[in-house]
Specification:
This protein is an alpha/beta fold. It is built from ten helices and 15 strands. Bound molecules: NADPH dihydro-nicotinamide-adenine-dinucleotide phosphate.
Length: 332
Protein backbone atom coordinates (compact mmCIF):
# COMPACT_ATOMS: atom_id res chain seq x y z
CA UNK A 1 0.00 0.00 0.00
CA UNK A 2 1.30 3.50 -0.80
CA UNK A 3 0.82 6.02 2.00
CA UNK A 4 0.91 9.80 2.21
CA UNK A 5 1.69 11.37 5.56
CA UNK A 6 -0.30 14.52 6.29
CA UNK A 7 1.69 16.33 8.96
CA UNK A 8 5.45 16.30 9.46
CA UNK A 9 4.86 15.22 13.02
CA UNK A 10 6.74 13.68 15.92
CA UNK A 11 4.44 10.65 16.16
CA UNK A 12 4.98 9.82 12.49
CA UNK A 13 8.75 10.07 12.85
CA UNK A 14 8.87 8.14 16.13
CA UNK A 15 6.44 5.35 15.27
CA UNK A 16 4.29 5.48 12.15
CA UNK A 17 6.91 5.64 9.40
CA UNK A 18 8.48 2.52 10.91
CA UNK A 19 5.05 0.89 11.28
CA UNK A 20 4.11 1.49 7.64
CA UNK A 21 7.48 0.30 6.35
CA UNK A 22 7.15 -2.88 8.43
CA UNK A 23 4.18 -3.99 6.29
CA UNK A 24 5.04 -6.17 3.31
CA UNK A 25 4.80 -4.09 0.14
CA UNK A 26 3.94 -0.82 1.89
CA UNK A 27 5.77 2.44 1.57
CA UNK A 28 5.68 6.04 2.71
CA UNK A 29 5.44 7.76 -0.65
CA UNK A 30 4.85 11.42 0.32
CA UNK A 31 4.74 13.88 3.17
CA UNK A 32 2.56 16.99 3.23
CA UNK A 33 3.41 19.79 5.66
CA UNK A 34 2.32 23.38 6.20
CA UNK A 35 5.90 24.47 5.58
CA UNK A 36 7.91 23.67 2.48
CA UNK A 37 11.22 23.81 4.34
CA UNK A 38 10.01 21.41 7.02
CA UNK A 39 8.50 19.09 4.42
CA UNK A 40 11.80 18.97 2.57
CA UNK A 41 13.89 18.45 5.70
CA UNK A 42 11.48 15.77 6.98
CA UNK A 43 11.45 13.97 3.63
CA UNK A 44 15.25 14.00 3.50
CA UNK A 45 15.62 12.83 7.10
CA UNK A 46 13.21 9.92 6.62
CA UNK A 47 13.96 9.00 3.01
CA UNK A 48 10.48 9.93 1.75
CA UNK A 49 10.58 10.36 -2.06
CA UNK A 50 8.00 13.17 -2.48
CA UNK A 51 7.08 16.16 -0.34
CA UNK A 52 5.12 19.39 -0.53
CA UNK A 53 2.62 21.76 1.05
CA UNK A 54 -0.32 21.11 -1.25
CA UNK A 55 -2.65 18.45 0.17
CA UNK A 56 -4.79 18.44 -2.97
CA UNK A 57 -1.78 17.72 -5.15
CA UNK A 58 -0.93 14.72 -2.95
CA UNK A 59 -4.54 13.54 -3.02
CA UNK A 60 -4.67 13.85 -6.81
CA UNK A 61 -1.87 11.28 -7.05
CA UNK A 62 -3.65 8.04 -8.07
CA UNK A 63 -0.77 5.98 -6.73
CA UNK A 64 -1.61 7.00 -3.14
CA UNK A 65 -3.92 4.47 -1.49
CA UNK A 66 -4.02 5.68 2.10
CA UNK A 67 -3.43 8.81 4.13
CA UNK A 68 -2.17 9.01 7.71
CA UNK A 69 -3.21 12.29 9.38
CA UNK A 70 -1.15 13.44 12.36
CA UNK A 71 -1.40 17.21 12.26
CA UNK A 72 -2.60 19.23 15.26
CA UNK A 73 -6.17 18.35 16.16
CA UNK A 74 -8.02 21.30 14.63
CA UNK A 75 -6.73 20.33 11.16
CA UNK A 76 -7.92 16.69 11.16
CA UNK A 77 -11.50 17.42 10.01
CA UNK A 78 -10.72 19.35 6.85
CA UNK A 79 -7.81 17.13 5.85
CA UNK A 80 -9.75 13.90 6.46
CA UNK A 81 -12.76 15.13 4.48
CA UNK A 82 -10.49 16.08 1.59
CA UNK A 83 -8.76 12.70 1.63
CA UNK A 84 -12.07 10.84 1.83
CA UNK A 85 -13.48 12.91 -1.05
CA UNK A 86 -10.43 11.91 -3.09
CA UNK A 87 -11.24 8.23 -2.42
CA UNK A 88 -8.32 7.57 -0.10
CA UNK A 89 -8.45 5.31 2.95
CA UNK A 90 -7.72 7.32 6.11
CA UNK A 91 -6.02 6.48 9.37
CA UNK A 92 -6.52 9.57 11.52
CA UNK A 93 -4.94 10.48 14.82
CA UNK A 94 -6.92 10.92 17.98
CA UNK A 95 -8.80 12.99 18.93
CA UNK A 96 -10.48 12.67 15.54
CA UNK A 97 -11.67 16.28 15.66
CA UNK A 98 -12.34 19.21 17.97
CA UNK A 99 -16.00 18.29 18.45
CA UNK A 100 -18.11 15.14 18.41
CA UNK A 101 -20.33 16.31 15.49
CA UNK A 102 -17.20 17.03 13.41
CA UNK A 103 -15.83 13.56 14.15
CA UNK A 104 -19.19 11.98 13.30
CA UNK A 105 -19.18 13.89 10.00
CA UNK A 106 -15.83 12.32 9.12
CA UNK A 107 -17.19 8.83 9.75
CA UNK A 108 -20.33 9.55 7.73
CA UNK A 109 -18.31 10.86 4.80
CA UNK A 110 -16.08 7.76 4.82
CA UNK A 111 -19.11 5.47 4.91
CA UNK A 112 -20.69 7.27 1.99
CA UNK A 113 -17.43 7.19 0.00
CA UNK A 114 -16.88 3.50 0.79
CA UNK A 115 -13.34 4.02 2.13
CA UNK A 116 -11.80 2.61 5.30
CA UNK A 117 -11.57 5.18 8.09
CA UNK A 118 -9.94 4.41 11.43
CA UNK A 119 -8.67 6.09 14.59
CA UNK A 120 -5.10 5.56 15.78
CA UNK A 121 -5.96 4.53 19.34
CA UNK A 122 -2.78 2.47 19.68
CA UNK A 123 -3.47 1.06 23.17
CA UNK A 124 -6.06 -1.35 21.72
CA UNK A 125 -3.17 -2.89 19.81
CA UNK A 126 -1.13 -3.60 22.92
CA UNK A 127 -0.63 -7.23 23.92
CA UNK A 128 -1.12 -6.21 27.55
CA UNK A 129 -4.51 -4.57 26.95
CA UNK A 130 -5.62 -7.50 24.80
CA UNK A 131 -4.61 -9.89 27.58
CA UNK A 132 -6.60 -7.90 30.18
CA UNK A 133 -9.61 -7.87 27.86
CA UNK A 134 -9.34 -11.65 27.36
CA UNK A 135 -9.24 -12.23 31.14
CA UNK A 136 -12.41 -10.18 31.57
CA UNK A 137 -14.19 -11.97 28.72
CA UNK A 138 -13.17 -15.37 30.07
CA UNK A 139 -14.86 -14.44 33.36
CA UNK A 140 -11.63 -14.59 35.37
CA UNK A 141 -12.66 -11.60 37.53
CA UNK A 142 -16.38 -12.42 37.60
CA UNK A 143 -18.66 -9.41 37.32
CA UNK A 144 -16.65 -6.22 36.87
CA UNK A 145 -17.33 -3.80 39.71
CA UNK A 146 -14.82 -1.06 38.98
CA UNK A 147 -11.89 0.05 36.85
CA UNK A 148 -9.12 2.47 37.83
CA UNK A 149 -6.96 4.03 35.14
CA UNK A 150 -3.67 5.69 36.12
CA UNK A 151 -2.35 7.76 33.25
CA UNK A 152 -0.54 10.68 34.86
CA UNK A 153 2.79 11.09 33.10
CA UNK A 154 5.40 13.79 32.54
CA UNK A 155 5.03 15.32 29.08
CA UNK A 156 8.47 15.17 27.41
CA UNK A 157 10.03 18.58 26.80
CA UNK A 158 9.89 18.19 22.99
CA UNK A 159 6.09 17.82 23.20
CA UNK A 160 5.56 20.84 25.47
CA UNK A 161 4.20 23.02 22.64
CA UNK A 162 0.60 23.26 21.46
CA UNK A 163 -0.48 20.53 23.91
CA UNK A 164 0.10 22.82 26.90
CA UNK A 165 -0.69 26.27 25.52
CA UNK A 166 -3.06 26.16 22.57
CA UNK A 167 -6.75 25.45 23.02
CA UNK A 168 -7.23 26.40 19.35
CA UNK A 169 -5.01 23.51 18.21
CA UNK A 170 -6.69 21.05 20.57
CA UNK A 171 -4.31 21.30 23.52
CA UNK A 172 -5.00 20.03 27.04
CA UNK A 173 -4.63 16.68 28.74
CA UNK A 174 -8.29 15.74 28.20
CA UNK A 175 -8.19 15.66 24.37
CA UNK A 176 -4.67 14.25 24.54
CA UNK A 177 -4.85 11.46 27.14
CA UNK A 178 -8.39 11.15 28.57
CA UNK A 179 -9.55 10.32 25.05
CA UNK A 180 -7.15 7.33 25.02
CA UNK A 181 -8.35 6.19 28.44
CA UNK A 182 -11.96 6.40 27.27
CA UNK A 183 -11.08 4.16 24.37
CA UNK A 184 -9.22 1.70 26.61
CA UNK A 185 -12.16 1.35 29.00
CA UNK A 186 -14.65 0.96 26.14
CA UNK A 187 -12.34 -1.69 24.64
CA UNK A 188 -11.86 -3.61 27.90
CA UNK A 189 -15.48 -3.58 29.06
CA UNK A 190 -17.26 -3.60 25.70
CA UNK A 191 -19.67 -0.91 26.86
CA UNK A 192 -19.85 2.87 26.59
CA UNK A 193 -19.88 5.15 29.65
CA UNK A 194 -23.22 6.80 30.37
CA UNK A 195 -22.26 9.83 32.46
CA UNK A 196 -19.25 11.45 34.12
CA UNK A 197 -18.27 13.76 36.95
CA UNK A 198 -14.87 15.42 36.76
CA UNK A 199 -12.37 17.97 37.95
CA UNK A 200 -9.50 19.45 35.97
CA UNK A 201 -6.71 21.86 36.79
CA UNK A 202 -3.45 23.32 35.65
CA UNK A 203 -0.66 22.08 37.91
CA UNK A 204 2.35 23.87 36.47
CA UNK A 205 2.43 23.13 32.75
CA UNK A 206 -0.93 24.05 31.23
CA UNK A 207 -1.27 27.65 30.01
CA UNK A 208 -4.95 28.26 29.24
CA UNK A 209 -5.65 24.52 29.02
CA UNK A 210 -5.86 21.85 31.72
CA UNK A 211 -2.80 19.70 32.33
CA UNK A 212 -4.45 17.35 34.84
CA UNK A 213 -7.87 15.73 35.13
CA UNK A 214 -9.63 13.24 37.36
CA UNK A 215 -13.02 11.81 36.53
CA UNK A 216 -15.48 9.11 37.52
CA UNK A 217 -17.65 7.42 34.91
CA UNK A 218 -20.85 5.41 35.28
CA UNK A 219 -21.09 2.36 33.01
CA UNK A 220 -24.35 0.76 31.80
CA UNK A 221 -23.46 -2.47 33.69
CA UNK A 222 -23.26 -0.51 36.95
CA UNK A 223 -19.45 -0.64 37.06
CA UNK A 224 -17.68 2.55 38.11
CA UNK A 225 -14.54 3.87 36.40
CA UNK A 226 -11.99 6.22 37.96
CA UNK A 227 -9.59 7.89 35.55
CA UNK A 228 -6.57 10.15 36.18
CA UNK A 229 -4.58 11.91 33.48
CA UNK A 230 -1.80 14.45 33.78
CA UNK A 231 1.19 15.98 31.97
CA UNK A 232 3.00 16.93 35.21
CA UNK A 233 3.72 13.69 37.12
CA UNK A 234 7.32 12.51 36.61
CA UNK A 235 7.24 9.57 39.00
CA UNK A 236 3.62 8.38 39.16
CA UNK A 237 3.92 5.45 36.74
CA UNK A 238 0.94 4.30 34.71
CA UNK A 239 -1.44 1.39 34.91
CA UNK A 240 -4.94 0.09 35.21
CA UNK A 241 -6.82 -2.10 37.63
CA UNK A 242 -9.97 -4.10 37.00
CA UNK A 243 -11.79 -5.27 40.12
CA UNK A 244 -14.47 -7.93 39.95
CA UNK A 245 -16.48 -10.21 42.20
CA UNK A 246 -14.07 -13.15 41.57
CA UNK A 247 -10.73 -11.45 41.09
CA UNK A 248 -8.70 -8.32 40.44
CA UNK A 249 -6.35 -7.51 37.58
CA UNK A 250 -3.37 -5.23 38.20
CA UNK A 251 -1.69 -4.05 34.99
CA UNK A 252 1.31 -1.83 35.71
CA UNK A 253 3.27 0.33 33.29
CA UNK A 254 0.91 -0.46 30.40
CA UNK A 255 -0.44 2.98 29.45
CA UNK A 256 2.40 3.56 27.03
CA UNK A 257 3.53 3.42 23.42
CA UNK A 258 5.83 0.49 24.13
CA UNK A 259 4.97 -3.24 24.58
CA UNK A 260 6.05 -3.23 28.22
CA UNK A 261 4.63 -3.58 31.73
CA UNK A 262 3.34 -6.46 33.82
CA UNK A 263 -0.04 -7.99 34.58
CA UNK A 264 -1.09 -9.85 37.71
CA UNK A 265 -4.44 -11.53 38.36
CA UNK A 266 -5.33 -11.99 42.02
CA UNK A 267 -8.14 -14.38 43.01
CA UNK A 268 -8.98 -16.75 45.85
CA UNK A 269 -6.57 -19.34 44.44
CA UNK A 270 -3.40 -17.31 44.05
CA UNK A 271 -1.54 -14.42 42.46
CA UNK A 272 -1.08 -15.25 38.76
CA UNK A 273 1.51 -13.50 36.57
CA UNK A 274 -0.23 -13.07 33.19
CA UNK A 275 2.00 -13.32 30.11
CA UNK A 276 1.25 -11.20 27.06
CA UNK A 277 2.55 -10.73 23.57
CA UNK A 278 5.17 -8.00 23.19
CA UNK A 279 4.45 -7.02 19.57
CA UNK A 280 4.88 -3.40 18.41
CA UNK A 281 1.61 -1.51 18.97
CA UNK A 282 1.89 0.72 15.91
CA UNK A 283 2.96 -2.03 13.51
CA UNK A 284 -0.06 -4.03 14.67
CA UNK A 285 -2.36 -1.02 14.22
CA UNK A 286 -1.20 -0.41 10.65
CA UNK A 287 -1.37 -4.15 9.85
CA UNK A 288 -4.99 -4.32 11.03
CA UNK A 289 -5.85 -1.12 9.13
CA UNK A 290 -4.35 -2.49 5.90
CA UNK A 291 -6.18 -5.80 6.44
CA UNK A 292 -9.44 -3.89 6.83
CA UNK A 293 -8.75 -2.09 3.55
CA UNK A 294 -8.37 -5.53 1.93
CA UNK A 295 -11.73 -6.49 3.40
CA UNK A 296 -10.26 -8.66 6.16
CA UNK A 297 -11.77 -7.65 9.47
CA UNK A 298 -12.04 -4.21 10.95
CA UNK A 299 -9.37 -1.76 12.12
CA UNK A 300 -8.32 -1.98 15.79
CA UNK A 301 -10.19 1.26 16.51
CA UNK A 302 -12.82 2.24 13.97
CA UNK A 303 -14.05 5.73 13.18
CA UNK A 304 -17.03 5.12 15.46
CA UNK A 305 -14.62 4.23 18.26
CA UNK A 306 -12.89 7.55 17.67
CA UNK A 307 -16.21 9.41 17.85
CA UNK A 308 -17.32 7.65 21.04
CA UNK A 309 -14.00 8.02 22.83
CA UNK A 310 -13.98 11.71 21.91
CA UNK A 311 -17.54 12.01 23.27
CA UNK A 312 -16.38 10.68 26.64
CA UNK A 313 -13.43 13.10 26.73
CA UNK A 314 -15.68 16.01 25.72
CA UNK A 315 -18.08 15.11 28.55
CA UNK A 316 -15.19 14.99 31.03
CA UNK A 317 -14.13 18.49 30.04
CA UNK A 318 -17.71 19.77 30.17
CA UNK A 319 -18.28 18.18 33.59
CA UNK A 320 -15.06 19.70 34.93
CA UNK A 321 -15.99 23.15 33.63
CA UNK A 322 -19.61 22.99 34.80
CA UNK A 323 -18.99 21.21 38.09
CA UNK A 324 -21.92 18.89 37.47
CA UNK A 325 -22.59 15.38 36.25
CA UNK A 326 -22.74 15.25 32.44
CA UNK A 327 -24.61 12.62 30.45
CA UNK A 328 -22.46 11.67 27.47
CA UNK A 329 -23.82 12.68 24.09
CA UNK A 330 -22.63 10.19 21.47
CA UNK A 331 -24.41 12.14 18.77
CA UNK A 332 -27.14 9.60 18.16
P1 LIG B 1 3.75 17.50 16.61
O1 LIG B 1 3.69 18.79 17.34
O2 LIG B 1 5.06 16.81 16.52
O3 LIG B 1 3.19 17.65 15.12
C1 LIG B 1 1.99 18.29 14.85
C2 LIG B 1 2.19 19.34 13.77
O4 LIG B 1 3.08 20.30 14.25
C3 LIG B 1 2.82 18.74 12.51
O5 LIG B 1 1.80 18.34 11.64
C4 LIG B 1 3.65 19.89 11.98
O6 LIG B 1 2.88 20.69 11.10
C5 LIG B 1 3.93 20.75 13.19
N1 LIG B 1 5.32 20.63 13.64
C6 LIG B 1 5.96 19.50 14.04
N2 LIG B 1 7.24 19.78 14.36
C7 LIG B 1 7.39 21.10 14.15
C8 LIG B 1 8.48 22.00 14.28
N3 LIG B 1 9.68 21.57 14.71
N4 LIG B 1 8.28 23.29 13.98
C9 LIG B 1 7.08 23.73 13.57
N5 LIG B 1 6.03 22.93 13.40
C10 LIG B 1 6.18 21.63 13.69
O7 LIG B 1 2.63 16.59 17.29
P2 LIG B 1 2.55 15.05 17.63
O8 LIG B 1 3.23 14.22 16.64
O9 LIG B 1 2.92 14.85 19.03
O10 LIG B 1 0.94 14.85 17.52
C11 LIG B 1 0.29 14.94 16.28
C12 LIG B 1 -1.07 14.27 16.34
O11 LIG B 1 -0.91 12.91 16.70
C13 LIG B 1 -2.04 14.86 17.37
O12 LIG B 1 -3.35 14.74 16.89
C14 LIG B 1 -1.87 13.93 18.59
O13 LIG B 1 -3.02 13.89 19.41
C15 LIG B 1 -1.62 12.60 17.90
N6 LIG B 1 -0.77 11.68 18.68
C16 LIG B 1 -1.17 10.38 18.81
C17 LIG B 1 -0.38 9.47 19.47
C18 LIG B 1 -0.79 8.04 19.51
O14 LIG B 1 -0.06 7.22 20.07
N7 LIG B 1 -1.91 7.65 18.95
C19 LIG B 1 0.87 9.87 20.13
C20 LIG B 1 1.23 11.25 19.88
C21 LIG B 1 0.42 12.10 19.18
P3 LIG B 1 2.79 20.46 9.53
O15 LIG B 1 1.51 19.72 9.32
O16 LIG B 1 2.72 21.82 8.99
O17 LIG B 1 3.95 19.64 9.13
Amino acid sequence: MRWALVGASTIASQHMIRAIRAQAGSEVARVVSGSRDRAEAYAREHGIPAFGTDLNEALADPAIDAVYISTTNEKHLKQALAAIAAGKHVLCEKPLAMTVPDAAAMVRAADEAGVTFATNHHLRCSGSHRAVRALIREGRVGKVLSVRVFHAVHLPENLQGWRINSAAEGGGVIPDITVHDADVVRFLLDEDPVSVVAQATSSGMGQGVEDSAMSVWAMPSGAMVMSHESFTHPFAGSGLEVHGTQGSIFARGVMTQKPVGEIELVDTADRHAIPFDAHDLYITGVAEFEAAVRGEGSPAATGIDGVKSLAVAAAVREAAEAGTRVTINYGG
